[in-house]
Amino acid sequence: MKYFHLVWAALFRRKTRTFLTLASIVAAFLLFGLLDGIRSSFAQLGQNADGAQRLQTASKLSFIETLPISLQGRIANIDNIEAVTYANWFGGTYQGPKNQLFTFAVAPNYLDLYPEILVDPAEVEAWKRNRTGMLVGETMMKRFDWKVGQRVPLQSSIFPNSDGSLDWAFDIVGVLRAKDKKSAGFTESLILMHYDYFEESTPYVDGDVGWYISRVSDVRRSDAAARAIDALSANSPHETKSMSEQAAMASQLKQMADIGLIVGSIMGAVFFTLLLLTGNTMAQAVRERTSELAVLKTIGFSSSSVLCMVLAESMLIVVIGGVLGLALAAVIGPAASAGSGGMISLPPVGLQSWMLGLALMLAIGLLVGALPAIRAMRLNIVDALAGR
Amino acid sequence: MKVLRAAGLVLLIALVLAAWIFLPWWALLGVAAAFALWMLLARSGRQAASVTMVGVSTLSQRLGSSSVVIVGIAGVVGVLVALLAMAEGYRHTVSSSGDEQTAIVLRGGSSAELMSVMTRDAITTIERAPEIARDAEGRPMASPELVVAANLPVRGGAADEDGSVQLRGVGDMAWAVRPGMKIVEGRRFEPGKRELVVGKGARRQFTGLDPGSELRLGSQPWTVVGVFESGDSMESEVWADAEVVAATYGRGSSRASVFARLSAPSAFNAFKATLAADPRLQVEAKTTLDYFQGQSEGVSKVLRIIGIVVGSIMAIGAVFGALNTMFASVASRAREIATLRAIGFRGVPVVVAVLLETMLLAALGGALGGAIAWLVFNGYTASTLAGGVAQLTFEFKVSPALLWEGLKWALAIGFVGGLFPALRAATMPVTDALRAA
């Protein structure tokens, strides 16, 4: 640490070059911050403690098949199951098919199983009283500039209303907010309506539900509970498949595209390029300081302290650039999400991304500094001073 | 003065980049030809050419730092081209699924086949429309089809990991409506039997879809009897007899959609009008071209935006890398450049020479990146959930247009990365540079 001012001075020996190197590191870590945010928010969907406690039961045949509502009571009787709720897909769109919304018709106790969704208790009461009421996520409210108390026309892309048309109208009675901002992207763009009203109005549903959600009291025995639920309808026309909510989410996402692979290969290409550019700069910096390093050695600096100083320099520049880049990503991500009015949702850079980013910065700094540092360490004083 | 010059430079870069983006290739070719003429004929042009020759011929001595520019830009172009190829491949697969002469009829308000339900009566009415072409026996070439999503085990996935596949129930008219559809292995299914033909893409995506094998769909056993190829999004589907599918999935006599071959592409508007005029029908007709393009629009746009955003950020990083390298290269050749200027070479040839050198390196990088993207990703298969319902497999498509776009990016990076070092070389005080080590 006592040589810090030396390292610092060496870093700013050529201001232009340091600035340019910093800028390309900032660009790389900005990209890293944005991509890793996406990757980890996908990886973390449904992975909170509440998600592990919930089992999702859907038709084994395909996710468009429905299940009989009579199953609810039978699932509730299974050992280890605390509560059961159900939901059905509504397929809502607003102002034409281009605005597809996440709309579920849910049982009255649906919110009891989702403690991570915050709703004003008075609004929940209002929702329970109003058959055509709906609860709308905060992002969705902002996106369409909706207000509580407003009546909103929605179209369903699947289900006709009682009059045979696909037009429905609902009253907004409350706002859904996410307790944990990490899952806000999904929760706050959700719309919940009454299953009862939906089921009575549309001729197609007839007491069928899309899927069941049940909460287990003991997470360690949730596999057994899932098997017991599936056993209820084994060999019937409505065979089910139950798994924890996070497993269901993961398998659904895996079908979207192999996000991890694509993001990973982009990051690989970025870092390869970055390593090369920074490594080259460090090599240059050491090469042109050969005589200075030789003087340092002459006045008594040991070879290992010269090695450490060069390594410290390269790590310092990568860390400065990296922190700037990640900070920039932390600012740009939410700003882009807000600016797009809910069209895209880039999560803020989480703690995990910061840790991973810092580890990467140190590793890259070490790696690119290694060759020039070893060169500096092995420097022969006499040759270096003579300019050979 | 300094501020004014800086502002002028920024303006110049903005202008050149804007021209670079918006001008068509033939206009750029014209500019390049004019430039070549200048180098051949004008005095300063000939000077520029000879200085460039010197710079290029000594490139091998600066192999390390020059290759950094090449590889850095290759990285940018490679990632950009690969991401755009993904968007392009997706768009190509989905939009080549339709043409102007085939119409698809869905229930009004349904955005996808999976969400549409039509009754037998409605289908019979639609089939009577006079604009529909007739086959040799005088039957209308219209194919009512049923689409359901079915779960199948994913290839390479965990034991109980299922993916969603689109199961299409068709009648014998389906083959006549789609002339591009070919059975490449096995045979067609026989009506009334639980037999399946599978698309090539679906076969690649899921296990147990080889001809001869048995599988369970909708809690019934089915036999795979053939494989078909169509070069479009149908390849991700599995086909069976419509009656059997309807019975298995409890769909009765309803169908999801009608594909109709029209007598001519121009007959579509009349066909649409015929359906709209019939009060018994609440349906919506689109050409299949429009329908499938609409289905792919959102996703391919998102993929393209991701490609360009990621490419831009990487390009900024690479510009700074190139600047760094070229500044260092100019600094190490300071004496050489100063000597040239001392013996009478003017500023412009020196600027042009350094710029050209950087752009040459950038072009090499762009070509390398494009070549890598082409070798690795052309024909690479990926899959995604399409329309939120079923897996769609598609191939990355590295087209010549994309390679050209990548090269354009590379040259733009080279231009920005070379301009400032070039100006530095031309404005360096000659005496200082000659005295420098």
List the helices and strands and how they pair.
The complex is a heterodimer of chains A (388) and B (437).
Chain A: H1 4-11, H2 15-44, H3 49-53, E1 54-59, E2 67-68, H4 71-76, E3 81-89, E4 92-93, E5 102-106, E6 117-118, H5 121-129, E7 133-137, H6 138-144, E8 151-156, E9 167-178, H7 184-187, E10 190-194, H8 195-201, E11 208-209, E12 211-216, H9 222-232, E13 240-244, H10 245-256, H11 259-288, H12 290-298, H13 303-339, H14 351-377, H15 381-386
Parallel strand pairs in A: 5-10, 7-9
Antiparallel strand pairs in A: 1-12, 1-13, 2-11, 3-5, 3-12, 4-8, 6-9, 7-10, 8-9
Helix pairs in contact in A: 1-13, 2-11, 2-13, 2-14, 11-14, 13-14
Chain B: H1 2-22, H2 25-41, H3 43-57, H4 63-95, E1 102-107, H5 120-127, E2 142-153, E3 162-170, H6 173-177, E4 182-186, E5 195-199, H7 200-205, E6 214-217, E7 220-229, E8 237-241, H8 242-248, E9 257-261, H9 268-277, E10 283-287, H10 288-332, H11 334-342, H12 347-377, E11 381-386, E12 390-395, H13 400-427, H14 430-435
Parallel strand pairs in B: 3-8, 5-7
Antiparallel strand pairs in B: 1-9, 1-10, 2-3, 2-9, 4-7, 5-8, 6-7, 11-12
Helix pairs in contact in B: 2-3, 3-12, 4-10, 4-12, 4-13, 10-13, 12-13
